[in-house]
Amino acid sequence: MADTSHQRFPLWIFLFLLLSIHGYSFYLPGVAPQDFFKATCDCNCLLFIKGDVLKVKVNKLSSTKTQLPYSYYSIPYCRPQEIVDSAENLGEVLRGDRIENSPYEFRMRVPWMCNIVCRITLNEKTAREFKEKIDDEYRVNMILDNLPLVVPVTRLEQDSHVLYQHGYLMKVEKYFINNHLTFTVKFHKDEQLDSARIVGFELVNGSDLPQEVEDKKEIIFTYDVEFQESDVKWASRWDTYLLMADDQIHWFSIVNSLMIVLFLSGMVAMIMLRTLYRDISKYNQLETQEEAQEDTGWKLLHGDVFRPPVNSDLLCVYVGTGVQFFGMMLAAMIFAVLGFLSPSNRGGLMTALLLLWVLMGIFSGYATARLYKTFKGSEWKTITLKTAFMFPGVVFAIFFVLNGLIWGEKSSGAVPFETMFALVFLWFCISVPLVFVGGYIAFKKPTMEDPVKSNKIPRPIPDQSWYMSSTFSILIGGILPFGAVFIELFFILTSIWLHQFYYIFGFLFIVFIILLVTCAEITIVLCYFQLCSEDYRWWWRSYLTSGSSALYLFIYAITYFFTKLNITKPVSGILYFGYMLIASYSFFVLTGTIGFCACFWFTRLIYSSVKID
Predict the structure, then answer these.
(1) Other C-beta atoms within 10 Å of 574: how many?
(2) Total domain count, the chain
(3) 3-state DSSP call for residue 551?
(4) pLDDT score of 366 more than 70
């Protein structure tokens, strides 16, 4: 079993969101508002005078090859006299972060060369442990004053441009361990106080005298540290870490994608406005009964278009869940754009997403019960119960199985029982009651009246052309929404699976808005064509049309796995596809709800705009 004695769930988790929301009420002197959150996150950042002790902390061992994090002391590295674990928030525990103290200590602005940390004599077991981690290309992560250790890498084709990699490789070459570390601490000097702040923590990768890992071999761990004065101000010290991707390619791809999607969206909007205006004018200007009898198209469906669909309860549940997901994403995007969710606050984004999901339960219950009552439903308690448990239950079941696999690998990424209990507590004791409150409020409101009455006998649906079939329309409808996000999706997947920071939330928010517009427009267009072909079964098709973009997302995830990742272990592959299945399912719920709500508004609008005798 993995050592989880240090994994603690903080009692102040419920205060996190409140602190995040109100944290901008106060500003630090000399710090711009957009940089304030960086300051609040770096609460352990201090002014250091010459000779002050700087203590280096260690984080998890990470690998893009296995995607399984391990505690730093899971292998026989040099240990301090007493291992002290840092308090971790919910997001850090879920990410597999394990922050502990280390025997590495510096003196501020005092160079120190060839310091011996410890001597370790390997035996057969410890040598095997080192070799296994070396084979899996594990990297060691360290932290100084809340800044992660990075290794500068100069690109061959552009020597002036430096990229940074998180942590350093355990090996120098095959089975030769990186036992001598050369650290560079960058500082920004405060002339008035004769003190300095730490603005960079780098390491020259590759030991000058690497030692081979083998049985009964003594390995000496040493390090050098030098200090460099930097012009980078403390408020901007994270900029280096947040610019690790190729900026030119990223910006060009995003702008190109936005231009294409905006152009297509404008075309769709123009066609819809002109076509609808002509149809409504035509229908409202019919003068004789003969003209009305000769009419065809969407107006003939006024007696069936608002007939409740098959499995209407399930549709209500999915729509309510989608509203909850949309509220969570929108709030998280706004917080991220404003700078509240800086990567300097490790685990902050994941913690915020979980808390926002829980709080948005009230909107989920409201949307579900409101639509359910429109379908003349009466068992609002049952439908809200389904909403509160269906989607979270499916996700939790998949997560529980994946977590069991991580436990089997003795990885620090396994969620301990305490954290699992906290997740269940948030679900059952906060999210579920809020869903019921929302459902109760909605059911007390008057029923939404349909613009037109439904006939008792359903109208027969004529035979449809192949291009108007449900399968074809649904598959076609998901292409454009996926096209709006697939370029940004590449960078998101890279940040998750290749352990890079992602902080271009401004672009992400624009892409998110375009995704909403695209889902709404493409679903409305296909719904309009469907009604014109005298097929009134639009309820589920509108949801599946935009929701089918999740299928393309999962196909893209499969392609990314085989083209960009180097995962060979079966467990790691299962973890990847398991988490991507959860992501695709969530994307289906979100985009499907957007498309459905757009069509719901569209059909009510057009049928309330024409004269019905």
Answers:
(1) 14
(2) 2
(3) helix
(4) yes
Q: Is residue 517 part of a domain?
A: yes
Is residue 37 predicted with pLDDT exceeding 60? no
Same domain, 503 and 570: yes
Q: Classify residue 22 as exposed, middle or buried by CB count within 10 Å of its CB (0-12, 13-18, 19+).
A: exposed
User: How many CB atoms are located within 10 Å of the residue 426 CB?
Assistant: 19
Indicate whether 242 belongs to any domain. no
Residue 125 pLDDT > 80, yes or no? Answer: yes
One domain, residues 443 and 517: yes
* Distant-in-sequence, close-in-space partners of 465: CB < 8 Å, separation ≥ 6: 533
Alpha carbons 258 and 261: distance in angstroms, whole number: 5
- 242 burial (CB, 10 Å; 0-12 / 13-18 / 19+) is middle
**Is the pLDDT at 253 greater than 80, yes or no?**
no
Contact indicator for 178, 210 with CB cutoff of 8 Å: yes
pLDDT score of 2 = 39
Selected residue with higher pLDDT from 405 and 40: 405
Query: Considering the domain boundaries, does residue 289 fall inside one?
Result: no
- Whether 38 is covered by a domain: the verdict is no
Is there a single domain that holds both residue 324 and residue 473? yes
The arithmetic mean of pLDDT across residues 151-165, rounded, is 68
Centroid of chain to Cα 169: 27
Same-domain check for residues 253 and 220: no
Half-sphere exposure of 409 (CA within 13 A, CB side): 23
- DSSP-based three-state secondary structure for 284: helix
Exposure string over 586-605, b if 16+ CB within 10 A, otherwise e: bbbbbbbbbbbbbbbebbbe
Phi-psi region at 145: left, alpha or beta (left = phi > 0; alpha = psi -120 to 50): left
Indicate if 197 and 254 belong to the same structural domain. no
pLDDT, average across residues 207-216? 77
Claim to verify: residue 165 and residue 129 sit in the same structural domain: yes
Three-state SS at 171: strand
| pLDDT for res 304 | 79
- pLDDT score for 157: 55
Residue position matching structure tokens 């300051």: 39
Q: Which domain holds residue 362?
A: 247-265+307-448+466-607
Query: Bigger pLDDT: 9 or 329?
Result: 329
Regarding whether 226 and 373 lie in a shared domain, the answer is no
Q: In this structure, are 204 and 254 located in the same domain?
A: no
